[in-house]
Design goal:
heterodimer, A: 270 residues, alpha/beta, 6-stranded mixed beta sheet, 4-stranded antiparallel beta sheet, 10 helices, 36% helix, B: 303 residues, 3-stranded antiparallel beta sheet, 12 helices, binds adenosine-5'-triphosphate, binds magnesium ion
């Protein structure tokens, strides 16, 4: 479990708190989403979770270990792995294979299993057969896939995805969401998804809405979808079908707030 | 400025100084005509060659084979010097603004203001101005910042590297807008943007397109976005342009989309379902229009 207690954070040389008094627990096996406008503090919060940044007030514990304890920070960084918003910030190898191997060696992954793990994760993200390709010859989406593969390879206990699918094509995005669902079925692992798109997180356990560094609301997707005004104030657009359901409800037509196309079509047959 | 590509092929092998092999073309047999003032989208699977193609148009690479014509001239024509020189030191490529897929890599200045002012400051040296240079630059920067929702005072003097991912991206786009190009190419511009920023970006694009006749070329994986905004779509796969036409027609061909790793999108599916009830909508991505059409149908059938 990650326990965030009364955490505030201000960047050095800045006069503004960008995380303000946040308290939140991320349970083992839980999938949480963080949504909010640009600059609301999503990435900052994720960087606090694995001790890349330290809170000025409050505390963060990962499985009982404080992120500010230098003796255990190594453990924490192994447990909590982030796929960063910009893949160039984390690609370290010169070939795809080297990049994935690097992280694996770092965590002491059994040497004889490294190769099959590399092949496994490349396949997961749809880059199979490209292990010897240079990272400089990757397209934008391929770079993002590599960043995902390198972190997936480590099977972290806490997987943090900071807009990690923004550059994927629709097919790859759907495939990746399926991979995430599989990881989720492992009750020992937790996932935190940061995104600007509500439709990518309709299946999560809880959504945390951030606004100007504070928690505006924590709710299940099914509940949150009924408050489009709250979402919109946080820079989040209602997905297409719920948006139509919403408009229909304002004119008195009862329909599921999270409808399928069929459910909307059924309205016409009433 | 008209853009024409005639049988254009491009291989990175030459750029990477490797031996050239015939089957290593990254983009192949590209033929296109784009008129000034069009609003075009390009979509295709990851690695299909979208970013490569638009960098060819911007002149960052030259075609390995085939011809690129801008305003009827070949800017690479070696007979007419390396890059055709127009008045001042300008080439046709300078009239094209390109927002890269990861535009934050282009940021370099110490403050947001300086970064956005870079383009206009270069232009000051090349153009005849109707007012003091400093004021001219300032006005352009201000306009560009407004267009990207960066009016908040804290932005102007902050270091672009101290901004959030989405904020940085908006600064980078403002930098391209500030040069006020005739042709604006954007590579996945909305990735990382919140809903406010996306809405104002598209308002800006339509305004530039309709009022100033700027050509817009939008590369995007968000097919909903394309359906809502573009009037022409090019679908790419394996380095080729596979389809070129009306987004509403192309995005309704679900079988084809699936075959190129694209997905059917809800607005399209729903409008097809509505059509079976005789309900037709102009713009399936317009939620109010669709809801109104449903409401009208229900009122009519209730009688
Ligand atoms: N290194 C830094 N120094 C000073 N301020 C910073 C720094 N990095 C981010 N900020 C500011 O902190 C605030 C929160 O940034 P953060 O990156 O956490 O936002 P975000 O919610 O991830 O936004 P986005 O959706 O754009 O990625 C922003 O207002 C940003 O300008
Ligand atoms: N500098 C380079 N050297 C060699 N090959 C490259 C280089 N840049 C890109 N490629 C390859 O060219 C192909 C097309 O890349 P491009 O960046 O044009 O794709 P894209 O359609 O923009 O993809 P994405 O949607 O992922 O951004 C890819 O297979 C990529 O691996
Ligand atoms: Mg962020
Ligand atoms: Mg690209």
């Amino acid at each position: 479990m990650i326990r965030i207690e009364n955490v505030s954070y201000q960047y050095p040389f800045s006069d503004r708190q960008v995380i303000r008094n946040i308290t939140l627990e991320i349970q083992k096996g839980e999938h949480i989403a963080i949504l909010g406008a640009n600059g609301s503090g999503k990435s900052t919060l994720t960087r606090l979770l694995n001790g890349l940044l330290f809170p000025q007030t409050g505390s963060i514990q990962v499985d009982g270990l404080l992120t500010t304890n230098s003796k255990t920070i190594g453990d924490i960084r192994r447990k909590v792995q982030i796929v960063f918003q910009n893949p160039d910030n984390q690609i370290v190898g010169t070939t795809l294979e080297e990049d994935i191997r690097f992280g694996l060696s770092n965590i002491g992954f059994p040497i004889e299993e490294i190769e099959s793990q590399v092949n496994h994760v490349l396949k997961l993200v749809g880059l199979e057969g490209q292990q010897r390709k240079s990272v400089h010859a990757l397209s934008g989406g391929e770079k993002q896939k590599l960043a995902l593969a390198s972190v997936l390879a480590l099977s972290p206990q806490y997987l943090i995805l900071d807009e990690a699918t923004a550059m994927l094509d629709p097919g790859s995005r759907r495939q990746f969401l399926q991979t995430i669902q599989q990881i989720r079925s492992d009750e020992q692992r937790s996932i935190v998804t940061v995104t600007h798109y509500f439709d990518e997180v309709v299946n999560v356990d809880r959504i945390v809405l951030l606004k100007e560094g504070q928690i505006e609301r924590i709710a299940e997707p099914q509940q949150l979808i009924q408050h489009p005004e709250v979402l919109e104030a946080c820079g989040v657009e209602l997905p297409y079908l719920p948006a139509i359901a919403q408009q229909l409800r304002t004119i008195g037509i009862k329909v599921n707030p999270f409808p399928t196309i069929q459910e909307l079509v059924d309205v016409l047959c009433r | 400025m008209q853009i024409i590509l005639q049988s254009v092929y491009f291989s990175y092998d030459k750029v990477n100084k490797k031996k050239f092999k015939y089957d290593d073309y990254t983009v192949k047999n590209i033929n296109m005509h784009i008129q000034q003032g069009e609003f075009i989208a390009i979509a295709g699977h990851s690695g299909s060659g979208k970013s490569t193609l638009i960098q060819l148009i911007k002149g960052l690479f030259s075609p390995t084979e085939g011809t690129l014509l801008l305003a009827g001239e070949n800017p690479w024509d070696r007979q007419q010097r390396r890059c055709t020189q127009q008045k001042g030191n300008k080439t046709q490529f300078d009239s094209i603004g390109l927002v890269f897929q990861y535009p934050e890599h282009q940021l370099f200045a110490a403050t947001v203001y300086e970064d956005i002012a870079f383009g206009p400051t270069q232009q000051v040296k090349q153009e005849v101005l109707d007012r003091p240079a400093e004021q001219w630059v300032q006005e352009r920067v201000k306009r560009a910042m407004q267009k990207m929702n960066l009016e908040d005072e804290r932005f102007q003097d902050s270091n672009p590297f101290d901004l959030s991912g989405g904020e940085r991206r908006r600064v980078a786009i403002a930098g391209v807008l500030a040069a006020e190009p005739q042709i604006l190419i954007l590579d996945e511009p909305t990735a990382g943007m919140d809903h406010f920023a996306r809405t104002s970006l598209f308002q800006t694009l339509h305004q530039l397109n309709q009022q100033e006749n700027v050509t817009i070329i939008l590369v995007s994986h968000r097919l909903e976005e394309i359906l809502a905004h573009a009037s022409r779509l090019m679908l790419m796969g394996d380095g080729q342009i596979l389809r070129d036409g009306d987004p509403r027609k192309l995005l309704a061909d679900f079988a084809f989309l699936e075959s190129i790793q694209m997905e059917k999108i809800e607005p399209m599916q729903f409008s097809i379902a509505l059509a079976e009830f005789g309900i037709s909508v102009q713009d399936p991505s317009n939620v109010s229009e669709v809801s109104q059409a449903i409401k009208n149908y229900l009122t009519a059938t209730a009688r």
